[in-house]
């Protein structure tokens, strides 16, 4: 089975056996050298699935880093630039980002800045990377644990997706990406939302039929607004509060919350604000809250959170001057972008989550 989603910039090739498609792409492109960026977990669990079948990748230079969000850091970027220099990579080289969202964000940034930009492709192995992080041309690294503060828009030459990589994910990381699929339904496709909300057990078999639809929703939005000046902001639903929670957790928790878990919380809290403003029907809010709380464990917000609250949210990259730029749902399947929101409104919604969810 092979399915191709064609964007204006690159193809997204979904196949049971992506190795042959990768080999064809690389052989037609005549790259001088190939470098594969992956983390240690991917090296152990996913690399064998590719290396034994791909003629063009099995002899590539491997750039292996530790796993985790902490790797999206300028020091790691410097080490990778230095490694590419030592290997004498040039502007005709190719970087293959093989892994989850951290790898696609970091690897895209490395490729787009090395020698003013070299080609890269994404091979996403996590659900989060398949439906969100690996698609859309956003690259970047964190700055002092503030999310994605440094980066640029830069598209891969192609994306190759093989669903059986999802079998390497535990339940927690599968739900991590599933939150973004739910977001796509809430902001743009009520039918997708209605299908997903009836899934009680999150397994690869249950969600695979909806992955390409989720990818297509993101592609359609990005194609209309590549640089996030307008409708692409719809994809930020749940992310302003989600990044607030995620950043706080990264700075304070021994076992930080995952991105998708934080976005799920963000969607509940931002939906509450929309309901409080009488934009979102109470029944729609209850539907969103009920399904998300059934899937995602509550994050216990400590009292000292409020000491950090304004400092962190003021670092949100979507902020415009003194305006906090939110995307709110006014009905499942539609959104309002460019919505300002006071600190007090946000605090009230977070307190609702803290006390009721």
Main features:
single chain, 357 residues, alpha/beta, Rossmann fold, Dehydroquinate synthase-like, alpha domain, 2 domains, 4-stranded parallel β-sheet, 3-stranded mixed β-sheet, 14 helices, 11 strands, 17% strand, globular
SSE blueprint and pairings:
Layout lengths: L1 E5 L4 E5 L2 H12 L4 E6 H6 L1 H5 L9 E5 L8 H13 L7 E6 L1 H13 L5 E6 L2 H7 L4 E6 L2 E8 L5 E3 L9 H18 L1 H7 L7 H21 L14 H14 L6 H18 L5 H14 L9 H9 L12 E6 L2 E6 L3 H14 L1
Parallel strand pairs: 2-9, 3-4, 3-5, 5-6
Antiparallel strand pairs: 1-2, 7-8, 10-11
Helix pairs in contact: 5-6, 6-7, 7-8, 7-9, 7-11, 10-11, 10-13, 11-12, 11-14
In short:
With 357 residues, the protein is of the alpha/beta class. The chain has helices spanning 18-29, 40-45, 47-51, 74-86, 101-113, 127-133, 171-188, 190-196, 204-224, 239-252, 259-276, 282-295, 305-313, 343-356, and strands spanning 2-6, 11-15, 34-39, 61-65, 94-99, 119-124, 138-143, 146-153, 159-161, 326-331, 334-339. The termini are far apart.
Gyration radius over CA: 20 Å
SSE order, one letter for each helix or strand: EEHEHHEHEHEHEEEHHHHHHHEEH
Model regions low in confidence, pLDDT < 50 over at least 5 residues? none
Q: Between the first and last Cα atoms, what is the distance in angstroms?
A: 42 Å
Task: Give me the side-by-side strand order of the main sheet.
Answer: 4-3-5-6
| CATH homologous superfamily placement of the largest domain | Dehydroquinate synthase-like - alpha domain
- The counted number of beta strands is 11
> How would you sum up the global shape?
globular
Number of helices: 14
Arithmetic mean pLDDT: 94
Into which percentage range does the β-strand content fall?
15-25%
Q: How would you sum up the major sheet?
A: 4 strands, parallel
In total, the number of domains comes to 2
CATH topology of the largest domain: Dehydroquinate synthase-like, alpha domain
What is the CATH first-level class name of the largest domain? Mainly Alpha
CATH architecture of the largest domain: Up-down Bundle
Give the helix level as a range of percent: 40-55%
Structural class: alpha/beta
């Amino acid at each position: 089975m092979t399915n191709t989603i064609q964007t204006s910039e690159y193809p997204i090739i979904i196949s049971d056996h992506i190795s042959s498609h990768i080999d064809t792409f690389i052989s037609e492109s005549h790259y001088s050298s190939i470098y594969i960026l992956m983390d240690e977990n991917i090296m152990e669990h996913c690399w064998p699935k590719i290396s034994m079948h791909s003629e063009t990748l099995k002899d590539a230079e491997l750039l292996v880093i530790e796993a985790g969000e902490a790797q999206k850091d300028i020091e790691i970027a410097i080490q990778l630039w230095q490694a590419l220099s030592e290997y004498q990579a040039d502007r005709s080289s190719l970087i293959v980002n093989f892994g989850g969202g951290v790898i696609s964000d970091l690897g895209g940034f490395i490729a787009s800045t090395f020698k003013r930009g070299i080609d890269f492709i994404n091979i996403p192995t996590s659900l989060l990377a398949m439906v969100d992080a690996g698609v859309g041309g956003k690259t970047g690294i964190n700055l002092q644990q503030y999310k994605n503060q440094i980066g640029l828009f830069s598209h891969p030459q192609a994306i190759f997706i093989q669903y059986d990589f999802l079998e390497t994910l535990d339940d927690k990381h599968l739900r991590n990406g599933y939150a973004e699929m739910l977001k796509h339904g809430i902001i743009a496709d009520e039918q997708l939302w209605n299908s997903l909300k009836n899934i009680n057990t999150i397994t690869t078999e249950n969600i695979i039929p909806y992955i390409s639809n989720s990818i297509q929703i993101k592609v359609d939005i990005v194609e209309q607004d590549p640089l996030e000046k307008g409708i692409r902001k719809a994809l930020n639903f749940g992310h302003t509060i989600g990044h607030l929670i995620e950043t706080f957790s990264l700075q304070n928790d021994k076992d930080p919350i995952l991105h998708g878990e934080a976005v799920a919380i963000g969607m509940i809290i931002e939906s509450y604000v929309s309901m409080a403003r009488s934009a979102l029907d109470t029944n729609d809010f209850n539907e969103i809250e009920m399904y998300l709380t059934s899937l995602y464990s509550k994050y216990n917000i400590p009292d000292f959170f409020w000491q950090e609250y304004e400092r962190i949210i003021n670092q949100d990259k979507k902020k415009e001057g003194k305006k906090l730029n939110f995307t709110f749902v006014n009905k499942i399947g539609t959104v309002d972008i460019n919505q300002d929101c006071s600190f007090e409104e946000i605090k009230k919604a977070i307190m609702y989550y803290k006390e009721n969810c």
